[in-house]
Amino acid sequence: WDNAPQESFFGHMKDEINLKSCTTFESVKKMINKYVIYYNNYRYQWNLKKMTPVQYRNHLLAS
Predict the structure, then answer these.
(1) Which of 37, 39, 45, 48 has the fewest CB atoms nearer than 10 Å to its CB?
(2) Phi then psi for 3, rounded to 5 degrees?
(3) Domain-by-domain residue ranges, the chain?
(4) DSSP 3-state helix, strand, coil percentages of the chain (rounded to 5)?
(5) Percent of residues, the chain, with pLDDT higher than 90
(6) How do residues 1-54 score in pLDDT, each as one tens digit?
(7) How many whole angstroms separate alpha carbon 4 and alpha carbon 24?
(8) Distances (CA, A) of 34 to 15, 22, 30, 51
């Protein structure tokens, strides 16, 4: 199977968050959780018809 979607996600995550500012494992987990929420609900994607992943999923389910 192609792992390009996972590589793309982690590449964007590493570019967009600053894990060096975290001082504890808990703060790393919180920052990653916040990013996942942002990525799925607020970050528009060209490959998904300029929708967020959640919007695109809902669009497909409604069709």
Answers:
(1) 37
(2) -105, 15
(3) 38-63
(4) 75, 5, 25
(5) 87
(6) 689 989 989 999 999 999 999 999 999 999 999 999 999 999 999 989 999 999
(7) 30
(8) 15, 13, 6, 19
